[in-house]
Amino acid sequence: MLSKKLEKALNNQICIEAESSQVYLSMASWAEIKGLEGIAGFMYMHSDEERQHMLKLVKYVNERGGHALISELKAPKTDFGNFQSMFQELYDHEIFVSKSINELVHVTLEEKDYATHNFLQWYVAEQIEEEALARTILDKINLIGNDKGGLYLFDRDVMQITADSAATDPNV
Ligand code: OFO
Hints:
Elements: H1 4-33, H2 37-63, H3 83-110, H4 114-144, H5 148-168
Bound molecules: hydroxy diiron-OXO moiety.
Hydroxy diiron-OXO moiety binds next to α1, α2, α3 and α4.
């Protein structure tokens, strides 16, 4: 059985994962109307992954005798200026989510809930991967600068990352 404090903290994370999904969906839609097909595909996939992260938490909370609450979400912004700053925002957002997961892990130790501590290790590992991927993408963006041909190749590369990860990561 989850403690009330931990249940509340897990519900907060459910909201953060759902909002992350909305943020990336909004980025996907923006990229799509700008003709950035590869980037849009990457963001749609990322949005789906965040929804899976949210669902995994919902199921866990209910399985442990809590009540997963589906709450109202903050509306994400709809205009991202340019793709460079959009990926910077993605990176910053992942850092924010990692901090939130760390705080949640801290609560499991305070509450001596080792089952939830164990369950959250998947999220800890996932955040390391997502931060690393976002950093790799930002490095590529810095390399291409304002080169139009570079943008074409970058968009294609990002599409490839999406295809690779869909093929190799059934667990999202
Ligand atoms: Fe839920 O992994 Fe990114 O934020």
